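Researcher: We're teaching a course module on how sequence relates to structure. For the next exercise, students receive a sequence and then see the predicted structure as tokens, so they can try to spot secondary structure elements on their own. Here is the exercise chain.
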Amino acid sequence: MTKKTCENHVAELMRFFKWLHKSKDFDWRKPEDFADLDTKVKMIDGERTRVGHLNVKVYTHEELALLYKYATPLERLLLLLGLNRGFKGAEQGTLQTEHLFLDRPHPHVQLLRQAAKFECASTDRFILYTRHKSGVYGEFLLWEPTVAGLRWALDRRNRIRARLQIESPQLLLTEKGDPFFRRTSSNKNQSQVFLNKWAGLVRRIRKDYPAFPATAFRRCVTRPPTGFATSPAARSPPCSSATASR
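Model: And here is the predicted structure for the students to work with:
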């Protein structure tokens, strides 16, 4: 198991013990030194240097085509943000309109030309974003389908805001006006939107293709499928942060 998976298991176990301690149906209570338990998950040397990621299973282009075919417009956008720029739920859910450069020029055109030797084309569209977890800044060049999906999402956001008469900087909102990504007081993401969307998409596909992999969207592709990216948007500016499709 990965370090993250182990941490999730430990956290779930600690929540269970907390519930058990307060339950009147059981006699178990926390030992006096329970709070002194070291629950930090540590990586051993072998895990730090392992090359298991080289053997990770990947979605085939045919499987990606099925995902795209069966997806709703919203699910397609989530899929494209993952494929095009390696955005997971935290990045997608915290994306704000100010991060989108769809109808305005890149603010650092001269710097890109001088320092990175990258020439922005008039058709290039970008997301400028600081990674939610790591704090790493990146400039992400977009495919044309991703741009179209983002424009659709902007229209959807505006409709929800007008209907509910709310203000929100987030791009992705539920029909009730809640951000897709939000945290509890314990700093955990309480939204299940992304998991539910993915599960629903895979479930629809498996009705027609029962053997379709029913795993989370962590499988990688080595390169964009034909038709997903066009020539200008397939370029990557040298200064953009490295991301992996997932």
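Model: If you want an answer key for the exercise: DSSP finds eight helices and three strands in the chain. The first strand starts at residue 100 and ends at 101.
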